[in-house]
Design a protein that fits this description.
One of its GO terms (biological process) is FAD biosynthetic process. Helix content is 33%, strand content 28%. By secondary structure, it is α/β, with parallel strands linked by helices.
Amino acid sequence: MQMTSLTYLDDVIHNPATAITVGTFDGVHLGHRTLISKLVEKAREINGRSVLVTFNPHPREVLHGGHNTVGLLTTLEERAEILHQSGVDQMVVIPFDRDFSLLSSEEFIKDILFRKIGIAEFIIGYDHQFGKNREGTIKTVEQLSPALGYNVHLIQAHEVAHHTVSSTLIRKALVDEGDVKLARTMLGRPYPLSGMVVHGDKKGRMLGFPTANLKIEETRKVIPRKGVYAVEVLLDDKVYKGMLNIGIRPTVTNSKELRIEVNMFDFFDDIYGRQLRVRFYDKIRDEKKFDGLDALRAQLHQDKADCIQLFKTLS
């Protein structure tokens, strides 16, 4: 089957031959992908479809009255792309609002999953909770299975370096430490950011390191901690190595505005107004204030050398 990206609940066609799973799946990390592999496998076994049900916005934003904006590891579009690559047939998006949050876990399974979508195989993570007050658990799913006629498959935790992989842990690694290497390990791929190239003040060009200034498209995306990072940049289906700075550039300005600037190695074209996608591989250093432009320029040369060496070790 061809995956239908971002299918909303009202547009779903009922099909009892469905392997289904439910969750936010932000990041689609290695723990999620273990579950997704089982989802695709079970759909194949029953000659049916694999359906992943997710929510927008993030449930915590609604349940906490908008005072707890959750930084996103993946936009809906990014999630759909990863799921398509993983072989999932359909991603069903349920608009999450106050009314929906009052639905009991039993009503959710019976009225939404069973009657509206269809279930033959239910794949669920070990810690998944759902329904009003998060009352629904694996026990709820198992208790309803005889009456509704579906099979239940429990997926255990996935660990990396003695840590249970979770979206919360990945967000914390990015925001608190800028640990994009740990994030890359837990995601199973580099953490991405996408944005449009906008005009800056050309300070980088003056230093011999012209930069593309990025305006991030999705304002809720998690931005890693301030610092210099080794990155790959995707433009027109080509991949360029580069280094990216997130910060306020204290050596060249007194402004407190956060900037995201990327220097693409051996690239000098005019790309204002173009869309770039950046993949983070490792953090090179924290942002710092230098004594002057010469000291900053020397450090940028060292940063570039460190990035090039890093990519050699990865190849």
